[in-house]
Amino acid sequence: MKLGTAGGLVFVILTWGSSFIFIKYGLQDMPPITFAAYRFLLASSILLASLLISGKYKMVLKFTKREVLSVAILGVVNVFFYYIFEFYGLQHVPAGQASVIINTDPIIVTVLGAIFLGEAITKRKVAGLVLGYTGVTLVVIATNPTLSGSIWNIVVLGSAFSWAVGSLLAKKIAYNMDSYLMTATSVPFGTILLFAAAIITEGIFPINRISSLGWTSLIFLGVVSSVMTFFVWYEVLHEIEASTACITLLLVPVVTTILGVIFLYEFYTEISVLGIALTLIGVYLTQNRNSKSPNEEVATAEPETVPSK
Known about the structure:
Number of strands: 0
Number of helices: 14
Number of domains: 1
Structural class: mainly alpha
Order of helices and strands: HHHHHHHHHHHHHH
Distance between the termini: 25 Å
Radius of gyration: 19 Å
């Protein structure tokens, strides 16, 4: 692996791992839906500007009604629902625990793919399903065994489910559309819905009430985590096999857990650590393993449809 590619992977892992910490910080200033809306206002602005600068907006103008509907639905699932579940859940669930739960989305993709796409579930994937959700159960019970805690963990699990549904949808769209174009057009759809929901449920939140830490969180999440990391991720996918790159993302919840202990004073027992380990092993086992070349696999792998978790 080239040094630049390895550096890119490290950047992605550290950025997406620390994003959960910055969400926790930002939620101290802003209501959850408003926070998510402001975050993606920044991301959408940059993505739309890049469409104009690159000239790819001309391709958007040629979208068929079916393509417009597809990216709109993707924005609803992978931006609107995903981040509402994540931001609401993170108000009550430790960052490391939320990261572990959300990153079980490959396990959900395995189940949904078998149900709706007729994809085979191998013995390896069955083992991954069992280990993965045994691990999640241990993490949840060890960290917060109360009924109310369990409910908020289910809310966080809604993020993983939304991402899984969006991944399957994006897999179909990506056959006829550039992944970057798909993301740059779907994110604004989700952003509009987030603002509408924020105004209806939380009212208009004045930006002058956001602290310096809140602004730091917004800029990091909206610019670095949601845009810069997106471009770095796709550069990495052009250099190495997508399955290899995706497996390295198992380090994201590990990074979040460590940072949560350091900066948020989150506490994990031996059972929690065992649960995290079992979950990551389970996710690893459900990842597709094949011998395709990097270029072939970039075309067929499940794309990261929204530039952040």
